[in-house]
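In this supplementary section we document a worked example of the pipeline. Step one takes a protein sequence of length 350 as its only input; no multiple sequence alignment statistics are reported here. Step two produces a three-dimensional model, which step three serialises into structure tokens for compact storage. The input and output of this example are shown verbatim.
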Amino acid sequence: MASTVYNIGIIGYGTSAKVFHIPLIEAVPELNLYAITQRHPTAENDASKDLPDIKSYGAVEDVMKDPLLDIVVVTTPPPTHFQLTKLALENGKHVVVEKPFVPTSREANQLIDIAKMHRKLLTVYQNRRWDSDFLTVRDLVKNDTLGRIVEFESHFDRYKPSMAGSKAWKTRVEPGGGAIYDLGAHLIDQVHVLFGLPKKITAFLGSQRVDNPGDYHDACTVLLHYEKMVATVKVSVLSPEAAQMRFWVRGENGSYKKLHEDCQETHLKAGMKPGDLGFGIEPEEWYDGNPLSQTYRTVHPQTYVIFYTQLVHALAGNGEMPVKPEDASAVIRLIELAKQSSDEGRTVYV
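The serialised model returned by step three reads:
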């Protein structure tokens, strides 16, 4: 019996759609890239020209009414996520929302209720759960390789002293904006996957750049307090290192240190696609050791395609969603508490 093929419509046609969704959707046979909604195409960025064989819409209201559309993928800026997701669910569509889910946990929980009311699947694109280095850390924790974890560090550190070249919406001070919602949402989600909800949070949000007239929060340090363990997540834009720290995990019996970010984003931006030779595979020179340490190779990547493969299984009733919306709501709540901690200069209880 032939598999069901689901028609997908993407709202927005920026980097998120072109780099992080379309190549992955095209790699899953049960998914059909059916439509793109782009309000303001330009000569240099026009979905109807780039993808002439799919339907192009200029208004979200029109694509929502298309009876052949099964799944909506929301890739627009965070302040628009709530209304677009609500509209899609109320029009009987399953929804994938780009992270961050929504600016507030209240909005997140409201969308979860709407999805249940309309019996539609709602998930959030926390694709960094399938970074090969995070999967490696997950194996180490699951297998108790390092013993009881006592300190956990996770970093997205970069060196970008100027805001020049940054997307305008990503540097505006607005709901769902700032480093903690952008990269921080990935790091907090990964900690939540490994360890669950913390007991307390201490956070520092601010700007590291001098060239930042709007005082956009381009950096954050968040301490998540667990029983006899602290997880620290850090996002920095002024880290002049030749090899940036990614993970440093310390246990009673050993520690694990990983430099460099997972390479899937770099490969996707370079035009590689899932299935291409070497896609998602880290260079051999990234595995470093010395006589007092043991090299622990990063696991073979499952790649971000797993997100959409699991979505297909969930739609068919054969498995759970790739990211439960309740998990994404918990991440947004932790971000809210981190903002409160930073604003009030104190540790807050979860």
